[in-house]
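Table S2 (continued). Query chain:
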Amino acid sequence: MMIDWSRERILILAPHPDDETLGCGGLMRKAKDAGAEVYIQFMTVGDTADNSPKGLSTAEERYQEVKEVAEFYGWDDWHFAFPGDAYHLKLDAVPRFELTNAIERGSPLSIAKLKPTTVIAPHRTSYNQDHQITAEALHTALRPSNTQRRHHPRLVLAYEQAADQWRYDAAPSPNFFVELTKEQVDAKIHAMHLYGTQSHDHPHTRSDETLRSLATLRGMHAGVPYAEAYHMMRWLA
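Corresponding output:
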């Protein structure tokens, strides 16, 4: 099937800043180039002990990175639902109702308010607890019901990241591929460079080589030079 991205209003759920780029960086560039609306609902951010030279990335640093990435892609809006150290890397301790309600109707970028045509979120099989609970909360928020009473996006996808394959019960083979040009893959890699606290040298799951290799592999699976792969959960034709 062919999608006219110029007519799409896309909502992407990112547990943390950079997840949207790792999972959907090529699609975002392709969609914005076509004239789509793209909105990013970040779930949380906070100070993070990491393997960077400083050993710590602060929430303030990551907010600044988000602003640069948002300008680069031309996002139509973005928002943090649960910012702060009380939530960062602890979303699995937040009641499911609160997470689901934020996604469904509580956030300024909620499904009820934004009425997106496409919603994309992490896959449930990620090893990261914040990704798992975000995926589960979205599943509840998009539960089947009367379309005259609740908005139903016609396309719902789960994005992948290279690190997701670490789980022994990793997601099955993807069933939805978005063809990318070399320029769109390059844009994805450039956006990750703007996330300076999160990009790493190879070998790392967020290195340039990893991102380009995954795009090449998924392109091969679809018979094209480059692609991003997704798991389609709903398609209403």
